[in-house]
Design brief:
Shape: globular
CATH class: Alpha Beta
Number of domains: 1
Mean pLDDT: 95
Low-confidence stretches: none
Radius of gyration: 19 Å
Structural class: alpha/beta
Number of helices: 8
CATH architecture: Alpha-Beta Complex
Order of helices and strands: EHHEHHHEEEEHEEHHEE
Largest sheet: 4 strands, mixed
CATH topology: Lambda Exonuclease, Chain A
Strand content: 15-25%
Helix content: 25-40%
Number of strands: 10
């Protein structure tokens, strides 16, 4: 089978489509004819999350006893260089410092309460996006990275951990956990027996989450993925509100109202408004 001809879906692309098919198109299908790249709009909150996650992601590949020997704050300074100033969507130096200080507090929280960070983990290759055929018949591939997989030796299983850098809690109807459960089940050999979120803005400890049903998760995600495939085949991507918070910023870029400030590691043209 040719993976390049398949329809690829991920948590972010599915979340876009569920809220606004037009936003899905502009973020995941459309390419700027001048650069050949997809487009995205950056913001201080996104940049904060990117920098904090970059620091954390590199830890799981290290032996547990080595993870906090190198200063996380020095790693954060290096990661922040990628999002400083306009590149991160910051309008003023004061705004940037406010967000950077939030990131420092989150990492200090991890340093003071490392918990699962110092326990055995399943190594996640940072240069490879885990993926598998959600449906070979439909030629649909589910892909995505999970922040952390703690190895639970007593049960020879894994614990999905997702680090949250925003101020709001994940909504109960979110498809993130069903997607992560499917990815973890189908791209590595250990059974998933636990899942947690770590709200780094406010909590020293993990927030346990009830694992969804594997069969229900597959059915739910495949249903949306089939809708995405059909929309791509029909080239039918309409915003249900004919202009919502999700697609309006991207439409403004198409009208020439944005400023291109860089290119992401995944070859997206980064804009600010």
């Amino acid at each position: 089978m040719d993976k390049y001809k398949a329809t690829w879906v991920s948590h972010s692309s599915i979340a876009d489509f569920v809220v606004c098919p037009r936003a899905y198109y502009l973020r995941n299908v459309f390419k700027d004819p001048n650069t050949g790249n997809k487009i995205t709009v950056t913001s201080p909150a996104l940049s904060l999350g990117q920098a904090v996650h970059e620091v954390i992601e590199g830890l799981s590949t290290l032996p547990s006893e080595e993870r906090l020997k190198i200063s996380l704050l020095k790693k954060f300074d290096l990661a922040w260089e990628k999002v400083t100033g306009k590149k991160g969507g910051f309008k003023t130096h004061e705004q940037e410092q406010e967000f950077k200080e939030r990131g420092v507090k989150m990492l200090n929280r991890i340093i003071a309460n490392p918990g699962a960070i110092l326990k055995k983990a399943i190594k996640i290759q940072s240069d490879f996006i885990p993926n598998y055929y959600l449906s070979e018949e439909d030629q649909i591939i589910l892909c995505g990275k999970i922040d952390w997989l703690e190895y639970l030796e007593s049960t020879d299983s894994v614990h999905i951990i997702d680090f949250k850098t925003g101020k709001h809690e994940e909504q109960e109807k979110s498809l993130q956990l069903p997607i992560y459960l499917l990815l973890a089940t189908n791209t590595q050999t250990k059974k998933v027996t636990k899942a947690s979120y770590w709200y780094l803005e406010k909590n020293n400890e993990l927030t346990p989450k009830e694992l969804p049903s594997l069969l229900e998760s597959e059915d739910k995600i495949l249903t949306v993925a089939r809708r995405i495939k059909l929309a791509r085949q029909l080239k039918h991507f309409i915003c249900p509100q004919l202009g919502c918070m999700k697609c309006r910023p991207l439409e403004r870029i198409l009208r020439g109202e944005g400023e291109r400030v860089g290119v992401s590691d995944t070859r997206q043209d980064i804009y600010i408004l």
